[in-house]
Design brief:
By secondary structure, the chain is an alpha/beta fold. The protein binds N~2~-sulfamoyl-L-arginine and zinc ion. Its main location: secreted.
């Protein structure tokens, strides 16, 4: 082979190989219409009827209704089925456009400068979430530090911030938050970041904040499923699980909130189908994300203990108390939990009138096995371990896709709620 031919070969072959590898393109969802289909306790029948469609189911509880996004070319045939439907949205693509673009974040200028509140006007790429958190910590170096608990399946750090008060680092019981275990629930990272922002910036301005900061150590992880979160931003907006591959299946992803090693083995609250949105894994705790979170949870338990855990999700506007694994099981301090949740809902409502429903998670929403709050309660020893499902309500829209204009109000109402909560536990 002559040299110039070799050069051509070297240039062309990699290009040809590259084009042979399918590159995943970003899913736009333009023209997708979303529906709520009534299932009347027979979701299998509805699922069978729509099996031939490329419609994407996007809710996890389907005994009452199954929510689906139908591609434009299938809308006529789907409607001809005559199912009992309500239209949630005429165009999911338009809703995603309203959610706004991922705006580039700019670090504040100056030594120990506090990031701008404009962070909460838009959604941002995952890399910017890391920078924002680092910037925020750097502005309060004597009261906080960044930590990592381990790595995701694809090797990203699972990070958080530890914030302490006048008692010094690690001297008080833990307030422990996880955000974005479900990739598509973007509002969860934002709300958790807003709470973090205020815990740090209001310490010297607000005596109520000083009191809660001095009473607890805070451990806040805004994105515990970084691989899924990145994938929801680059490729499939409605991605939920992690991005773990397993031999013998083309379906990707395990639901980290069905993988915790507690009541994992029970049936009816998770799926053994690898393609399901609630796939539980092959064994309890067989996701790297869960292993990292379990190890860190044990560390907190063995330290000063865990006073309050919240797993921040969306959507539906719920405050969910233990347990998920059994609809009749109640925490030993259930009465106190219920009163607190009731008062929290009232406090949240004061800001913008947003209504949150509260109660034990299984009986209020649905059964879940291997979920975080059950583990935190019975194994982690947390006094309270809740799930909070943020805006919007479950009946209004494409819940995971919340317009950027709602980031701040959704965050402020939780901040006001949190101040109440932590002053009353
Ligand atoms: O299914 C989940 O993991 C949570 N809902 S979501 O729509 N964000 O996926 C709910 C977890 C709450 N726990 C129970 N219902 N048991
Ligand atoms: Zn969720």
């Amino acid at each position: 082979m002559k040299l110039n031919n070799l050069a051509t070969f070297l240039l062309v072959v990699p290009l040809a190989l590259a084009s042979a590898v399918p590159k995943e393109r970003k899913q736009t969802y333009n023209g997708y219409k979303t529906y709520k289909i009534a299932t009347h306790n027979n979701p299998a029948e509805v699922r069978a009827k729509i099996a031939k469609f490329a419609a994407i189911p996007f809710n996890t509880r389907d005994d009452v209704h199954l929510d689906v996004a139908v591609p434009p070319e299938e809308i006529a045939a789907f409607e001809a089925l005559g199912l009992e439907t309500t239209v949630l949205s005429e165009d999911l693509g338009a809703d995603i456009a309203e959610e706004g673009p991922l705006v580039a974040y700019e670090s504040p200028v100056g030594v120990q400068a506090i990031p701008s509140l404009t962070w909460f006007n838009n959604y941002h790429a995952y890399a910017d979430h890391i920078t924002f958190f680092n910037d925020l910590q750097a502005a309060f170096p004597t009261q906080s530090e960044i930590f990592t608990v381990g790595k995701s399946f694809q090797g990203r750090d699972i990070f958080g911030i530890h914030i302490w008060g006048s008692g010094g680092k690690g001297s008080k019981p833990a307030i422990y938050f996880h955000g974005t275990v479900h990739a598509r629930e973007w509002i969860s990272a934002k709300v958790v970041e807003y709470l973090t922002y205020n815990l740090l910036t209001q310490y010297t301005n607000d005596t109520a904040v000083k009191a809660i900061r001095d009473a607890y150590d805070f451990y806040i992880l805004p994105v515990v499923n970084p691989d899924g979160f990145v994938y929801s931003q680059t490729t499939t907006r409605l991605w939920r699980k992690n991005r773990q591959t397993r031999s013998g299946s083309t379906c990707v992803g395990t639901d980290i909130n069905r993988n915790w090693p507690y009541k994992w083995e029970l049936t009816g609250g998770a799926s053994t189908d690898r393609c399901s949105e609630t796939y539980k894994g092959l064994a309890a705790g067989d996701t790297p994300e869960n292993q990292a979170l379990v190890a860190f949870t044990q560390k907190l338990k063995n330290g000063k203990g865990i006073k309050f855990y919240v797993d921040w999700h969306s959507y539906g506007q719920y405050i969910l108390l233990p347990y998920g694994y059994d609809c009749n099981a109640r925490a030993s301090n259930h009465a106190a939990q219920n009163t607190l949740a009731k008062n929290l809902a009232a406090e949240i409502q004061k800001s913008y009138g947003t209504r949150f429903t509260y109660g034990p998670s299984c009986s209020t929403l649905y059964k879940t096995t291997g979920s975080a709050p059950d583990y935190l309660t019975d194994v982690g020893g947390a006094t309270y371990a809740w799930t909070i499902e943020l805006r919007p309500t479950s009946s209004s829209s494409n819940g995971f896709v919340l317009p950027a204009t709602q980031i701040l109000p959704a965050s402020i109402e939780q901040w006001n709620g949190l101040k109440y909560l932590l002053a009353n536990i």
